[in-house]
Amino acid sequence: MTGTPVSGAVAAAEQPAVVSLRASTSADRDFLKTVFFSTRFDEFAASGLSVTEIDALLAQQFDMQESYYRRHYPAGRFDVVMSGDIPVGRLYHDWKRGRGLSVIDIALLPTFRGAGIGTRLMQALVERAAQAGLAVNLYVEVNNPVQSLYRRMDFVKCGENGIYESLRREAVPFGSIAEPLPGLQSSIAE
C-alpha cells in the first residue's frame, strides 16, 4: 500500500515556538495523572457520579492504564511534552523494526489543545518514522475531533471495535521537511 506526501496545508500548519519532549520520571506522576483526568473527566461527569467518585474512578483507571502501557510496551518511550519550560502533555510511543511506530497515547492539557502542538508532534513522529522506513500505527476514539488531522496526514482506517478506530500511515515522507522535535528519541527495537 502506498500513500501520498502530507498536504502542504498540514505541513505548513502554524508551529508552536518551542515544543520539546523529555523522558517522564516518577516525579511526573501527578502531572501525568492530571493530563489523564483532563481527557476523561467530562465523559464521567455526564454519568451523574459525584466529583469524589469520579476522581476515585479516574485515579484507578490511570493506575491501570499506566501499568498496562509499561507492561505491554517495555521498550516504549513515555515522554512529557514541553512548551518551553512548561509541561503541557504526554506522548507515549514505541518503535519496532518490522512492526512500525506505535503512537500509544498523545494527550495535552485543555488550555494547550488546538494550538498546533499535537500537529507538531505528529509531523515529527511521521517524518522520523518515514526516514526509518516504518509505518505509523495508532488507535483513536471514533468520535475524537483529531480524526480530521489524522486523515489529512494520510492515515487510513484499518479496523474498529466500536470505541476506537485503528489507523495506519505507511512510511511515506512528508511533502516538506517537518521541523526537528528536540528530545524525540526513536531507538528501534527488534
UniProtKB/TrEMBL annotation:
The keyword Ribosomal protein applies. Residues 39-179 form the N-acetyltransferase domain. This is Ribosomal protein S18 acetylase RimI-like enzyme. The keyword Ribonucleoprotein applies. One of its GO terms (cellular component) is ribosome. It holds the Pfam family Acetyltransf_1. It comes from Paraburkholderia bryophila. InterPro entries: Acyl_CoA_acyltransferase, GNAT_dom. SUPFAM superfamilies: Acyl-CoA N-acyltransferases (Nat) (SSF55729).
